[in-house]
Specification:
Radius of gyration: 23 Å
Number of helices: 9
Number of strands: 0
Strand content: under 5%
Largest sheet: none
Distance between the termini: 88 Å
């Protein structure tokens, strides 16, 4: 009878400990989301220095939270826009490693592919896009990645591959006017 009582007490302590830990993680996620929200509002007001500081704070103080991962993406995007390709590479690769199917993964893949392509590493850029294509969750993102891949294939001299990608996209009834225009421009460059 006392063994059952001891077992019951141990289970009760374990459940209590689990609830305390879960509550702390939930509060950490809430705090991280709030800090990320503040940073994104600051970024929206074009205060890049303050936004960068706030994003780095989210990344450092709330490591291993979804908000920290999103902060990495935005730090990578800011670095990309500032033409700091090394930092952009570091942040965007880290984001993709943690969130390969995240809602910003397609954008991160496109930026990384552009960095590689601008460094005359077209093959690596295409590989990045292929990985993004295999992980993408939305049709919109899939089309964007394929359009960018067609552009890089064309730059690499692979006209047949680029044409195949573009024709596949143009045969899609749900293609947006913007995607259709880009696909037709690529097709025009292939033909000329």
């Amino acid at each position: 009878r006392s063994k059952y009582l001891q077992l019951g007490l141990v289970l009760l302590i374990l459940l209590f400990g689990y609830n305390v830990i879960t509550d702390k993680q939930s509060q950490l996620d809430i705090d991280a989301s709030a800090s990320l929200g503040d940073a994104l509002l600051t970024l929206d007001r074009d205060d890049l220095t303050t936004a960068q500081f706030q994003l780095e704070t989210v990344l450092n103080e709330y490591d291993n939270t979804p908000s920290a991962s999103v902060a990495e993406f935005y730090l990578g995007k800011m670095s990309y826009n500032a033409d700091d390709k090394e930092e952009a590479n570091r942040f965007l690769n880290s984001y993709l490693k943690k969130s390969p199917k995240g809602f910003l993964a397609a954008s991160a893949s496109i930026m990384l592919a552009d960095i590689s392509a601008n460094e005359s590493q077209l093959k690596e850029g295409i590989q990045i896009l292929d990985k993004g294509i295999s992980n993408v969750n939305s049709e919109k993102d899939l089309r964007l990645l394929k359009l960018r891949k067609a552009e890089l294939e064309l730059r690499q001299g692979n006209k047949d591959i680029a044409k195949s990608i573009v024709e596949e996209l143009l045969s899609d009834d749900d293609i947006t006017n913007w995607n259709k225009q880009i696909a037709q421009e690529i097709l025009g460059r292939i033909v000329s």
